[in-house]
Amino acid sequence: MKHKESLHRLVMIMILFTILIGCSLEKTHQVLASEGTSKTAQKEIEDVWLQTWRRTGLAITNIAPLLLEQDQDYAFLSYYEYKRENTNQLGEKVQRIDFKIPQFNDSSPAAIRLNRLINQMVSSDLTSEEKFYQDAYFSEKGSLEQIALKSSFVRGYDVTYSDYQLTNIVYNGYIYKGGAHGMPIWNSHVFDRKNGVELRLSDLFGDEVDTVITSCYQAFDQLIEEDQTRFFPDAKEWVRRETKESQNFYLTPEGITFFHYPYALGPYSSGIIEVTVPYEQLPTLQY
What we know:
Elements (H helix, E strand, L loop, with lengths): L1 H55 L12 E2 L6 E11 L5 E12 L4 H30 L4 H5 L3 E12 L3 E11 L6 E10 L4 E3 L1 H5 L3 H18 L8 H8 L6 E3 L3 E6 L12 E6 L9
Parallel strand pairs: 3-4
Antiparallel strand pairs: 1-2, 2-3, 4-5, 5-6, 6-7, 8-9, 9-10
Helix pairs in contact: 1-2, 5-6
């Protein structure tokens, strides 16, 4: 009996030891995978932004490290921030740049392609902003007046939709370059995380895309008819002229939201105008 009890106890100890070792190995693998992903993403960030700094002529020593932080709402995303303030000849702060840029937490080739695409898009925006500043700062005439406009460019992001393959990220923000007010910015991007590509409306619906566009027209027509004071007289024509070729849409769990910027369909006071077409009224997504 004692022999059986000892044998049973030994077996239980071995099982427990195996479980503990397995948990430890799994945790180690997770840490190593996380570190590998972080290093891969960090390398992509450094490569793209080094190119940006060279194009803008900025001194690399003046740029703070761009470090990844985990997104608290989405486990598959991290983000990094780029913040910079420029001054005029009098030392006054006249330009503020504040970007929050998402990155996919994956070392797969698809994720690397998407992160590179994201970084290059943001890099293009930064290059444009720095060029605006430098052109004003170094121009021979009226440089102080131009750069004293106190421009700012702020952008963050929202995830409006995500499933096992698709993620829709909307880059939102605000840009000001003088005048009575700035302009809101929405840039929507539907990413195929499996294949590492960005998708257009025609990719999502194939041959049925015209049906989707028609539903969009009808939704805007109804909105315009409900309160015509918010819209320009040619608002319906603008919708038909601009919607089909634009990326001014984003996916939600309920349907597809189409939007237009201020001054497109109505005055600035009307803001960004949007309509949502429920999936029940649309063809089936091809993803």
